[in-house]
């Protein structure tokens, strides 16, 4: 257990939380004797004094009891929440394709005899942290986490991982954090989108994205865009890149200030004489707004501006122009993340952390091709 003081929680309280969690997930059963203090201290990497403080707190709350001459035992009267909980924290349950993500995870955990316990962060770091702590306190055996955008400094999550609480991140990762991750091949997705536009015949290929440019998935999609340009002998041109948009959390948008800001930025970008001929857009919601503003400006899709999105949400022909996009198989991501988490809980994964990258496919529709395509083409 980390002792560097990065967490504001006292070390003995963190040790108590670890033992409490181990009891609640059944590692220590009611009536079972705990390891000797010296063994617990060695296992957790703390002093015996810290162990004594932690055990004293657990004795006081009735989780543990002592038997003179025999040691410390889990109380037979200890109250335990329902066994077999797997937590899942994500920004929203209704956002496009998140139900598929949840369904994939639910399919795996229910087959293994667990129940899936959801926590909604609402794209707020404080609420995300509170949901993680709630899942831990309720005895979840592990958690699948779709992190919100923002700082990579998440001490609460780091502390849980240091307690050896199993966590699998999805969609995005945190550099330097030793934790399992299941994510899309965003790098190759960005490459495929840009490659397609170049092979159709465009040379002034731009990128339009949101201002969360430090988020790993966005970083990788932009890198894929630049990679394709260089592979085809085109120099990346900063004037063809726009990353000043704000994230849209739904479509149609329900955040007027963001919508108005984005419209102003896109109008300025698309009205320039040296605007791009085609654009790869960071996600489908933003791509929809690009198409909307382009048509308001009198630009025809794809004759004047070709557009490729990312996600393949259910209503990609929202404006009557079917959107070329990258497929993001959310159900498969949910299945894979839950499978990895259960294997970690069961001890079948012994390496410190693992990253599983799910391939993506380009779905070609009318927004990037002059041909009037009746059916999408997978590549």
Verbal overview:
The protein is α/β, with parallel strands linked by helices and 379 residues long. The chain has three domains: 11-74, Arc Repressor Mutant, subunit A; 85-182 and 330-358, Response regulator (Rossmann fold, 3-Layer(aba) Sandwich); 186-328 and 362-378, Response regulator (Rossmann fold, 3-Layer(aba) Sandwich). It is built from eleven helices and 15 strands. The chain has helices at residues 11-24, 37-44, 48-60, 98-111, 125-137, 155-162, 186-200, 216-231, 256-270, 284-296, 330-345; strands at residues 64-67, 71-74, 85-90, 115-120, 143-145, 167-170, 180-184, 205-210, 241-245, 278-281, 306-308, 325-327, 355-358, 361-364, 377-378. It has a six-stranded parallel sheet with strand order 4-3-5-6-7-13, sandwiched between helices. The protein has a four-stranded parallel sheet with strand order 9-8-10-11, with helices on both faces. It has a three-stranded antiparallel sheet with strand order 12-14-15, with helices on one face. The longest helix has 16 residues, at 216-231. The radius of gyration is 25 Å and the shape is elongated. The two termini are 47 Å apart. 43% of the residues are buried.
What's the gist of this structure?
This protein is of the alpha/beta class and 379 residues long. It has eleven helices and 15 strands.
Protein traits:
Rossmann fold; 379 residues; Arc Repressor Mutant, subunit A; alpha/beta; 3 domains; 17% strand; four-stranded parallel beta sheet; 15 strands
Explain the layout of strands and helices:
Blueprint: H1 11-24, H2 37-44, H3 48-60, E1 64-67, E2 71-74, E3 85-90, H4 98-111, E4 115-120, H5 125-137, E5 143-145, H6 155-162, E6 167-170, E7 180-184, H7 186-200, E8 205-210, H8 216-231, E9 241-245, H9 256-270, E10 278-281, H10 284-296, E11 306-308, E12 325-327, H11 330-345, E13 355-358, E14 361-364, E15 377-378
Parallel strand pairs: 3-4, 3-5, 5-6, 6-7, 7-13, 8-9, 8-10, 10-11
Antiparallel strand pairs: 1-2, 12-14, 14-15
């Amino acid at each position: 257990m980390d002792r560097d003081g990065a967490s504001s929680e006292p070390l003995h309280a963190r040790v108590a939380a670890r033992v409490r969690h181990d009891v609640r997930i059944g590692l220590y059963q009611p009536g079972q004797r705990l390891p000797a203090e010296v063994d617990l201290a060695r296992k957790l990497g703390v002093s015996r004094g810290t162990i004594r403080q932690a055990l004293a707190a657990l004795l006081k709350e009735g989780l543990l009891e002592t038997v003179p001459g025999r040691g410390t035992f889990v109380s037979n009267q200890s109250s335990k929440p329902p066994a077999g909980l797997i937590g899942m924290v994500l920004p929203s349950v209704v956002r496009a394709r998140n139900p598929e993500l949840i369904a994939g995870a639910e399919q795996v955990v229910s087959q293994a005899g667990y129940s899936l316990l959801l926590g909604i962060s609402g794209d707020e770091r404080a609420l995300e942290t509170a949901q993680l702590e709630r899942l831990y306190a309720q005895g979840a055996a592990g958690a699948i986490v779709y992190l919100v955008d923002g700082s990579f400094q998440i001490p609460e999550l780091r502390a849980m991982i240091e307690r050896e609480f199993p966590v699998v991140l999805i969609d995005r990762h945190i550099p330097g954090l030793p934790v399992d991750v299941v994510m899309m091949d965003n790098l190759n997705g960005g490459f495929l989108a840009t490659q397609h536009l170049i092979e159709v015949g465009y040379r002034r290929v731009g990128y339009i994205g949101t201002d969360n440019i430090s988020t790993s998935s966005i970083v990788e999609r932009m890198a894929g865009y630049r990679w394709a340009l260089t592979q085809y002998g085109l120099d990346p041109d900063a004037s063809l890149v726009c990353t000043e948009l704000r994230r849209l959390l739904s479509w149609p948008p329900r955040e007027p200030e963001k919508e108005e800001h984005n419209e102003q930025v896109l109008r300025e970008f698309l009205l320039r004489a040296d605007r791009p001929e085609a654009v790869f857009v960071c996600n489908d919601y933003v791509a929809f707004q690009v198409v909307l503003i382009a048509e308001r400006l009198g630009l025809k899709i794809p004759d004047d501006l070709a557009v490729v999105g990312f996600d393949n949400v259910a209503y990609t022909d929202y404006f009557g122009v079917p959107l070329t996009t990258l497929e993001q198989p959310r159900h498969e991501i949910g299945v894979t993340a839950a499978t990895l988490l259960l294997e970690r809980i069961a001890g079948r994964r012994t390496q410190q952390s693992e990253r599983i990258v799910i391939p993506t496919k380009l779905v070609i529709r009318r927004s990037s091709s002059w041909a009037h395509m009746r059916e999408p083409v997978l590549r």
